[in-house]
Amino acid sequence: MRKGVSCGLVWVLCAVAWVLCAVALPASAQTIELDRAELERVEDLSESLANQLLELSVSLRRQDLAQVATSFDEHGSFYATRFPSKARPSSLAFKWIESHGWELDREARPLRRDVFLASLEDFLAHFTSIEDVRFKVKKADFELGQPVRGEASVFFFLIGRDLAGHREWVRGNIDLGVHLGPEARFVVDYWRFQNIDSLSSPQDLFSEVSEPLGMWEDVPRFGVTPNDGFVAHGAAIGDLDGDGLADLFTSGVLGNRLFLNALDSGSTFRDVSDETLVLFSRQGTGVLLVDYDNDGDRDIFMAAVGEQNLLQNQLWPSGKLEFLDVSAEAGVDHRAVGFSASAADVNGDGFTDLYVSSYNLYGQIMPDSWSRARNGTPNLLFINQGDGTFREEARSWRVADRRWSYAAAFADVDGDGRQDLYVANDFGENALFMNRGDHFEDEAALRGVLDPGNGMGVSFGDYDNDGDLDLHVTNMSSTAGNRILARLMPDATADDALLKKLAAGNSLFENQGDGNFVNVAAAAGGFGAGWAYGGGFFDYDNDGWEDLFSVNGFVSGKTMKDT
Amino acid sequence: MAAASEQEKAGNSTYQNEHMAQLFEEGMSFSGFERDALYLAGGDGTYMDVSGVSGLDSISDGRGLAFGDLDNDGDLDVVIVPVQEAGRLVYRNNVGQDNDFVRVALRGTRSARDAFGAVVKLETSRGTQTKIKAGGSGFLSYSDSRLLFGLGPEAPDGPYTLSVLWPSGLEERYEVESGESVLLVEAEGLSKLHLERLELPRPRTTLERIFTTLAVGVGEAFPELALTPVGANTKTAFGVSGRKMLVNFWATWCVPCAVEMPELESLFPELEAAGVGLVGISLDTNMAAVPGYLEARQISYPNYTLAESDFGKIFAGASLTVPLTLVLDARGRVIDAFSGWSAETRAALEALARSH
Question: What span, in angstroms and rounded, lies between the C-alpha atoms of B83 and A285?
């Protein structure tokens, strides 16, 4: 039994171990053991510096310069390069996105606080509104003398609207020197901008329209009943009533909800959850729109924690948009801790089969390993019998994986005409099940897609337009919260490769043309997308190249302070 | 009986969940406030992080994510299902539709009707794009299965070769032109889809957003409120006062209010001279704290406290969005609102002072 797993979050433990690993080089468990006391002290200091910088972020976002000033010595001076006040000319980086630099002081020099803050004020005068400001500690080192001194690499960003009303994103890196002053607050000794630049969009690329579209709905804060489950919030887009318009189905704490697209009648989206009966079926997680009976309308398959759900669309032949719960008759009411649902015809009989990625009841049952857990619940494979029923055959197809699976996707990656299956697991390695006609064989190791880490989301697309399908997997990358979690979980052991990889974030695997893959995430620029869940390929600007988007964030609390 | 040791408690899952729940209850964050990440393909194998400039970078704790063309304008809009706060977030793609595209829908006949796993290639003089019709992707989600192929701002000369490899093994080739939406039926042929281009609503303006949280609307009379004057200031008429009026709602616990109030104070003489009234209304339930707070900040414009029973006359929901400044016309009707201090607010108020 592990001592100190007091916050009950597995992902977190891995993250913690990663932090320890990064701090103590060489990263052997022994070194960590020896240096624990000092490490903890350093972690505590890093954490309190990170939190003080968060306060600074918040006061800057509010443009509360009096509060900002408290991080700087009122009387003395400190070495600094000033905030830039002069923007360099913009140039077009991509269609709809411009970039520009800023004039920076060449060298840091001793500055009084008021001079430094005046430069900040000049800098802020470039913005009519500010949506977000962050100072994030990327790396910190402390000397435990009197006083305690520290050096940190800090990533800075500001998102706001410039004087022309354009959305602008300023990014910079700051070398920061601090010492621990009175009341355990850090005081700045030096502040050097390494670089700073901006992206701006002359036209808003995206606008949030949930509320005017009738899609906004208040959801209780996470942790408050009934919103105390972990990750049961899915989405599906597709035409369900046969009018050629994309409708929307969502699952989760608000229940199974169906919204029909009524934009063609001058209206927005219409909530028909009640009248179409979807509201009254068991609450689902992962959603699929699938015509399992090949009758011409889309039915709904929902993975679920409990019994799996199949809702048959009555549009054909009765003409009525109503969903009949046929889970039991169709034989899909098997129990699982189902998350994502995926579909393809795995045996080539012309009927769509279904796969459920199954997790486990986290909290009641803990993974037996943080890097190679095998005590999840078995994934399910429902083979469509062609008569409206399914048979669960995951074992004979050898895909009854028990590795706490989160998501899966089908694609024929080796061009043999059969649908292969990639499965992302939360606590360790993923699977690439190659379809052999009557069973699957896991060749993830052989084909370079083990992707150790916390796999959350899977999608296939051709990122380099070379004619084959590449693979994108969302993962968790380390964030500021890790430091405190290190304190909560002191006996977490660094587990080498897996833990180091956690820093990398999402993976992009390039298909070599034969179903063998190489992770090109780093070469492509890196996708440290935080604690990522859904995501994948998405050519948002229609330029013919697949862009990538992923959503992230585990739980935002009332304060930005992590744990 | 001896109390369970910390170690025993830590290994107990019920304890873990309770401890966890407690942390969330206290409002702690776990990797919270992360901005969603958008990476723009450079076309050379590299990607550029454009999250912060995209407007798609919400800080919500997203889980499910689906892409789809909700308004049939030829680009992918985005639906996110977060774990808390918002039931769903919908993002309108404002730009993709300005580039050219081809849209392809598939229907299997020998293959299953859904034809999941079918691979479609669009070949133009600039190269070949390849997409799969996915039976679910990402996390818990299913995106629009009509495949959109972007062609950039100036589509290459058509026609283009469209090929599809059906799950049955059948491979077919067709010709398409830029701007076309087509349905391919396996072994039966291609038909053109005529999709009416629709419009998603425009986003709410800042002003509209403010008013969605309020019980009063633009053009409506400012309500009668149970107010208690703070200190020696005189009673101000909120009804037909014959002059424009700024009513600033604030509270001692509201951090941005502390920024805003001295700014209002500095504008007070100018507003007075212009014949524009300014009053503050505190939403503190501990009214005893109010006079000292005002005194410490040398706020001289008239201030009141508001009976809690009347909060609902101003705010629509349980949350009090402060700071809030309502602008009333000479007849006591609400005509405008500001939330929080910014350069914009200052400019607007200065303009208000000048206009009289």
Answer: 12
